[in-house]
Amino acid sequence: MGFINTHISRLTSFYLDYLQNHDIALFVERSKHYYEQSTIMRLAKSDQVETRRAAAMALGFIGDYKSNSVLGCLLVDIDRSVRLLAESSIKNVWPRDGSTYQRHELRLAMRNIAYQNFDEAVRITNNLLDDFPLFAEARNQRGIALYASGKFKDTIEDCKIVLDLNPYHFGAAIGMGHAYLHDKNKELAIVCFQQALKINPNLEAIRRSITKMVQSF
């Protein structure tokens, strides 16, 4: 049986229960039942670290793109667990922009990328962006498909626009860095990787890559 501490938010109690019982479905069900997204976003700014952890985790399951900036700020939280939860959650909310149909089409494009049908993924995302030019994740997925097709300059252009639309998109910064590497521009690749680290300091593999690249000059 769970417990409720009257000195902390109900959401925090749900999270502490989860740490004991590891029942993620129960945590999500409780969070949905008792909270609107806007309230969880406010709780994400709490002084209590457990509350920020709870909010970061909950938004990954029930939040939409409106929570992007809140989660983006949590990427640089002083608490490592908050940062890691925010990293996982923000990647979940990036595709949750647009209409139901647009989200469906984005998932279709992502499936095509997973199956290496890159031309079809580009076609789908082209149509999506004609319909909704501000859909940052649609442009990011097109950039991924273009990168896989060897079109590195086009990838870079898409990644730049993604970061203009969504300054918390560390994935786009990483993708742009890899595209610059393939374009034989190590200096700009390092700049992009450093940008990704500034957005999300938890990217240890990127940190190590920067060190190796700098040492190779």
CATH homologous superfamily caption of the largest domain: Tetratricopeptide repeat domain
Q: What's the average pLDDT?
A: 95
Distance between the termini: 59 Å
Contiguous uncertain segments of 5+ residues:
1-6
Percent helix among the residues? over 70%
Per the CATH scheme, the topology name of the largest domain is: Serine Threonine Protein Phosphatase 5, Tetratricopeptide repeat
Structural class: mainly alpha
Report the sheet-strand fraction: under 5%
CATH C-level label of the largest domain = Mainly Alpha
Main beta sheet strand tally, sense and closure: none
Q: What's the architecture of the largest domain in CATH terms? A: Alpha Horseshoe
Spatial extent as radius of gyration: 19 Å
Spell out the helices and strands N to C. HHHHHHHHHHHHH
Oligomer: single chain
* SS element count, helices: 13
Total beta strand runs: 0
**Number of self-contained structural domains:** 2
Shape: globular
Q: Can you describe what's shown?
A:
It is a single chain. This protein is mainly alpha-helical. It folds into 2 domains: 10-93, Leucine-rich Repeat Variant, CATH 1.25.10.10; 100-215, Tetratricopeptide repeat domain (Serine Threonine Protein Phosphatase 5, Tetratricopeptide repeat, Alpha Horseshoe), CATH 1.25.40. It has helices at residues 10-21, 24-34, 37-43, 49-62, 68-74, 80-93, 100-114, 118-131, 136-148, 152-165, 170-182, 186-199, 204-215. Helix 1 (10-21) crosses helix 4, helix 3 runs antiparallel to helix 4 (49-62) and helix 7 packs antiparallel against helix 8. The chain starts with 9 loop residues before the first helix and ends with a helix. 42% of the residues are buried. The model is unreliable at 1-6 (pLDDT under 50).
